[in-house]
Automatic annotation (TrEMBL):
Homodimer. It comes from Macrococcus hajekii. Residues 311-380, 673-707, 760-804, 846-873 form a coiled coil. One of its GO terms (molecular function) is DNA binding. HAMAP family: Smc_prok. One of its GO terms (cellular component) is chromosome. Belongs to the SMC family. One of its GO terms (biological process) is sister chromatid cohesion. Its main location: cytoplasm. This is Chromosome partition protein Smc.
Amino acid sequence: MVYLKAVEAYGFKSFAERTTVEFDQGLTAIVGPNGSGKSNITDAIRWVLGEQSAKSLRGARMEDIIFSGTEKRQPLNYAEVTLKLDNSSGLIEADSKLNITRRLYRSGESEYFINQAKSRLKDITELFLDTGLGKESFSMISQGKVDEILNAKPEERRHLIEEAAGVLKYKKRKKETAAKLDETMLNLSRVNDIIFDLESRIEPLQMEAAIAEEYQALTQEMREADIQVTVTDIKTLKTDYVRLETEIGEFTEMIGLKQARADKLETAIKEMTHNRASLLTSQEELHQQRLMLSTSLERHQGRLSVLYEKQDNLTQTVTRQQKEMEKLATELEEVTAEAAELQQQEESLKIELKEIRTQERAYEKKLSELNRDVETLIETARDNYYQMLSEQTAAKNELKYIDKELEGLNHYFSSVSDEDKEAYERLSGERSHKLQVIGELEQQLISKRSAFKESLEQSRRQRERYSELDEQIRHAGRYIDKLKSKQQSLTAMQAEYQGFYQGVRLVLKEKLTGIHGAVAELVTIDRSYQTALDIALGGQLQSIITDDEKSARQAIQFLKERKGGRATFLPLTTIRPKKMSDAIRQKLQQHDGYIGILSDLITVENQYNAIISSLSGLVIIAEDISAANVLAKKVDYKYRIVTLDGNIVNPGGSMTGGSVNQPSILLKQKEELTNITDQLKQYGVQLKGLEDEFDGLKNKLTDSEFKTRTLQDEGETLAEEVQRMKSEYDAQNVKLFELKTHYEQHAERVAQQAELTDIKKQLDEIILLKQSELQKIENEINDYQRLKTDARSIEEEVTRSLNEVRGHRIVLEERQKHQHDKVETNLRRKAQVTQAMSDLESDDHSENLEETIQTLKLTIQEEQESLEAVIQQFDKDKTAGDELAVDLEAKQTDYNELLRQVSGLEQGIGDMKGQYSRIDVQLENLIYHLMEDYHMTFEAADELYEAPAHIEELRQRVKLTRRSIEELGPVNIGAIQQYKEVKSKYDFLSEQESDLISAKETLETIMNEMDDEVTTRFNQTFSQVQQNFASVFRELFGGGSGELKLNSDDSLTAGIDIMVEPPGKKRQHLTLLSGGERALTAVALLFAILKVRTAPFVILDEVEAALDEANVLRFGSYVRSLSTETQFIVITHRKGTMEAADRLYGVTMQNSGITQMVSVDLNELNHNDMEELTE
């Protein structure tokens, strides 16, 4: 038999010194006045056995049990109590000597020891399990225990029998098993949720993985083919690159050769031009000599005729000569005066000519700076101008030939019309107009090209936005399709009630009469509270709300018939609400961590308020576990408190917590479906906006592209028109040049006719006419020069000024010469008159006349010979000049052709350089493509891949492969690995699901077995206690009867009622007895239980305090009778009890606040001493 040998306390409550209380077998009484600390011994034993409630130990907090000091003693830092047990019988699975120690420090740290070996509270609890010892066992019975029995409800009183039956360990194990079952069910629910989620993901992932694998294969195929095509293209471009370099070099060399030839021709042309000018100068000099010789010859021939006439009429004219002499004298005076006047005019003309020559030199300096081409035109005009002046001068000296020349000219004019002149003037006007039109067209072309570029850029920007919108629409469409698919899936899941228990699902799908739906379907709660709701209600979320009990019974019958499992039903007519009192609400609201009452956080239709209140009206929601602990303390641990993250503080103070993955799939599905519906509306609006913008942009893009094409076509048309106009302009220039040449020849003939027609009377008009012709030539030069640079206008001005100066100079020189000739003529006439007068006076006048005639004949003969020589030389020079002109024209043509060829070659080089640049860009792009897309250099790719035999087939394959890749749409490469991971997880969780189902079945079996064992043990123990209670009641009351009854047929939950019949009274309920009777009845029940469940030792703490003296004596006697089998330690202040004790301990407090123990020898103790001990 196990018995308590001693209790050793130090620092526990009022035990300031280490105190040892030794106990013997039998009955030991501990007595002492109130406040001496005798009950501290009971508290010390209860504390060692595992009591965790400071309140049960009569303190506010656990640190209050440590000695707090007195006026004379310092407080201690820890409390320590040791129970010393004799375990010789082996009732406890431990050593024969068993010491249990518990130590508590002020820091809050607690230690447990079994035989000085550090242990856990759990080890101590399990050590005493089913031994009758423990903090809640019948080994320690206090006055509070008696009151508890008296005030307990039948269901609470059942606990006494269960403890006596030793089923607490089964109930504890069942509770643990139930917790495991709940955890298993929770895990199974979570596994089912995850499996359900994985099932919805596996098929799409499998499809995405297949697409991704196909994408990878196509990408690899396209990669190899594209690299081969790219390498081949690079090689081809490099070959073209080298070819173009060679061709550019050849063209450059040809340009050099042709340019050299052109330079030589240019030099030859300059030299021939100079030679021709020299020939023209020589011709002019010969022409002047011819004129002079002709004039002299005519004059001499006229004189000869005169001499002949004189000779014939000498006689007849003597008289006349005399008269003539007088006349000649008069004329001589006039001629002399006129000569003097002419001399003065000549001096004036010389001065004017000097100034004109100064101007001429200035203009010649400007003229030398003009362009070579302009100089040629000016030189031609100058030659024409000199030719006209020469013809004008010749006309004055050839008056005798005017008729003949006019006849020839008339003959020429009869065969020539004015069409050439009109054609020339018309072409000249058309050319100027065409040049203006070309300028306008080129401005339009520039404007069109600028507008084309702007339109092209606008189209590019619109096309980019078009592509962006198209991609956004596609993405939005795919996302909406995905949402719709998920919506359909969730809707289907809801329709199939996936996630619900089998029985719930079957009832909901059947749509039975009176079924409103599951709680999870009908409630709505903010997302932040979903986890709390899920944890708080758990399986109750699947409870089905019905109209009434009848509907619930019909549904239950339906499940039985279908063998469809089980379900919980909540009839609207029977479920009553549970509400938290306003006082508790106000107390809770004072704490910041308080969220609210769960039923207040749930939104539901009014008709379901009672049910929701019943399920969650007493559930408190806290922010976190710390807040939950504080709130639980405020409500005395009477209510269930759930935190937002799913931790629980249960009624009574136990806590449940850990990690929570996600809220129940039932709540998650409903919220997700709502979110998806909202998203579909939102994305539908966005998609409509994108599609509207897309359609508008599509129309704008069509307009822009049409405008771009129109501008491009108009630009090309304008370019072609400009090119055509330029071609026509060049053709007109050629034609104009031909007409100009012909027209110049015609103009010369017209000038000759005009000069010959009015050589005497209209000489000034002829000069003005020539000036008009020169002005026309200058206008032609101006027209030509306007096509070139602005500098040519200076050339025209210089040419015009120079021609005017030269024309003025020639006019002055001609006037000077004419005056000089006139003076000479007058002098000659004067000489002739003088000679005639001398001849008339001379005696040998006829002989001198004959001699003069002979001399004149010789002179005429010499002049005729000189004239013929001059004419021959003139004809020879003219022939040479014509030949030189023909040769010059041929060389000029060759020169122009060379320049055209050089220009063509340069244009060819420009085109090739353009190709060269394009190839360079293409090469750079292809090489960048290899590096950027495939991370390969050209050399590496060329070495790795062979040249394909059929490049076009390979190129087509790349296009087809790329199209196949594009047709795949968006590809999730990660889907391959995701599918493997999800599939592996799905297989693993499927196995886990099977294991959890097996575990669930095993746990349910264990719980059923435990229920059977508890029922059996409880019934057996209750029967024994019932018999013992009847017998003990009679002994303690000295008669009468007592009975224990179960208040229901369910042995697992039935409460216990006490019916007694004290001696001399009728049978009545416990509550109708007097205070003493009630106390004695409770003691009788405790003793009845102790007889069934014998404890190694029992501590009775003033349990007989409410009994009268007679009953105390019976109580003491009965305890003593039991002490032969059980060790009793009684805390008392009643004499009847002390008299029954084997050993007595007195408790005193001589020093305030410190308990001291005194052992009393009962053999020496008299009645008066006992009186003193109790006072």
